[in-house]
Task: inverse folding
């Protein structure tokens, strides 16, 4: 196994703000690595450093064996990049963009034409290839963006929030394509996302970043197991929240929950549910609704940061 | 990965393709070059009416007509308008992230800039030629008139 992406003490400050505050990580060849965190956690800043668009203010990073500062040109030859919000010129057509991208990567024109056609077909954009990108839907733009990042068959692919703002169907299609790339071509994928589900679905290994620091790292299974107990969520009258919490604290560790709901990491699992309900009722708290969930990445995130991820239950930006 | 193009030749191709792109974009929003054409021509029309007779003043540069005096100014004005458009386009590229795409690719930094300027330069040349052509057409009846009145007492350049 070779390490394809490596960071040691990687830092980036903007004035007083430390957007990335000392990140250490190593991504091995052929992995899909998920970089999970809420908005403003430092995900994009980290990606911009890995892709040579931003200079680190501390620490070091290597991609494909090359230092991102001193060997930036070498790094650029080896990476494919699809940044947040599909960076695409709306006045150009799909065909023009993919050919231009190929030329930028030093591929001769005739080959660029051929490769461009193949890639557009692969992402299902052949019919729209001669239309201006301004007329594309969000999903089409993302697919085009992915095609563009693949013209030179990169070893390492950086995807910054590839499905933010996409409808569920487009999202599934993109996941499928990323999986295919990884399995068929062995492309190493570094993926940032604010969606737990996406990290869970795609990534073999996940790092959770919050306020510029990695707070957890491991396979999805490891991370979930580290949380341990399943989560019991109970809807109650909002007035009774305090009372309910004091009852629940006897059964396990308190977990964050939205208003009108209490949640606890239930020690002993399903066998304890009846006992919880009885205790609540004898304390005068009526249970309106109840659900028991196996630990999710959301719980991992909540346990690590004390907060819930935006979009953990619904997928909005 | 990359094919056998030589470094310099590759940079040339890249510059050319980027220039082509910026030229295509100008073509696709042709309306944006209109202010740069209309204003210099309008100014020239107004000024030549207003100051045409200034040619008779002692010390005024030796020109055939006020139009040839104002021509370079009009061209400079048209080209500066083009420069503003190019600046806006570049800012848009940076804002919508297209510039990042260029910077994250292995293309050298010089072609990125030259490509952008190349497109603008071609458009500027086109505009300059158009203005020269319009001035020549405007000057046509004037020259004919000058020939007819060559026997007149006034020196010819005072006619316009």
Result:
């Amino acid at each position: 196994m070779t390490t394809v992406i490596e960071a040691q003490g990687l830092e980036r400050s903007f004035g007083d703000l430390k957007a990335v505050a000392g990140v250490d990580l190593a991504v091995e060849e052929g992995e899909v690595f998920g970089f999970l965190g809420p908005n403003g956690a430092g995900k994009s800043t980290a990606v911009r450093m890995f892709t040579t668009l931003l200079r680190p203010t501390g620490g070091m990073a290597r991609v494909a064996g090359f230092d991102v500062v001193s060997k930036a040109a070498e790094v650029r030859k080896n990476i494919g990049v699809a940044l947040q919000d599909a960076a695409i010129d709306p006045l150009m057509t799909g065909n023009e963009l993919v050919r231009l991208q190929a030329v930028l990567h030093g591929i001769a024109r005739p080959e660029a034409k051929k490769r461009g056609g193949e890639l557009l077909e692969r992402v299902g954009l052949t019919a729209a290839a001669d239309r201006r990108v301004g007329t594309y839907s969000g999903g089409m733009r993302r697919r085009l963006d992915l095609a563009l990042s693949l013209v030179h068959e990169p070893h390492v692919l950086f995807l910054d929030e590839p499905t933010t703002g996409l409808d569920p169907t487009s999202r599934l299609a993109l996941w499928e394509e990323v999986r295919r790339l990884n399995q068929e071509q062995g492309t190493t994928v570094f993926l940032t996302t604010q969606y737990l589900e996406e990290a869970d679905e795609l990534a073999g290994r996940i790092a959770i970043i919050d306020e510029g620091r990695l707070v957890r790292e491991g396979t999805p299974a490891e991370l979930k197991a580290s949380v341990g107990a399943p989560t019991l969520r109970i809807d109650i009258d909002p007035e009774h929240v305090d009372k309910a919490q004091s009852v629940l604290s006897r059964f396990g560790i308190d977990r964050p929950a939205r208003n009108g709901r209490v949640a606890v990491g239930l020690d002993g699992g399903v066998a304890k549910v009846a006992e919880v309900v009885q205790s609540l009722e004898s304390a005068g708290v009526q249970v309106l609704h109840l659900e028991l969930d196996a630990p999710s990445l959301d719980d991992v995130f909540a346990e690590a940061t004390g907060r819930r991820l935006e979009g953990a239950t619904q997928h909005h930006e | 990965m990359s094919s056998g193009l030589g470094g310099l030749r590759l940079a040339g191709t890249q510059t050319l393709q980027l220039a082509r792109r910026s030229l295509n974009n100008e073509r696709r929003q042709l309306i944006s070059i209109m202010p740069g054409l209309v204003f210099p021509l309008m100014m020239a029309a107004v000024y030549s009416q207003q100051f045409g007779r200034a040619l008779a003043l002692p010390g005024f540069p030796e020109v055939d007509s006020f139009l040839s005096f104002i021509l370079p100014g009009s061209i400079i004005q048209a080209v500066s308008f083009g420069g503003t458009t190019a600046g806006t386009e570049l800012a848009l590229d940076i804002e919508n992230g297209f510039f990042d795409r260029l910077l994250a690719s292995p293309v050298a930094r010089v072609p990125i800039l030259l490509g952008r300027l190349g497109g603008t330069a071609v458009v500027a040349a086109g505009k300059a030629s158009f203005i020269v052509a319009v001035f020549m057409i405007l000057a046509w009846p004037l020259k004919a008139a000058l020939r007819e009145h060559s026997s007149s007492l006034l020196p010819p350049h005072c006619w316009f």
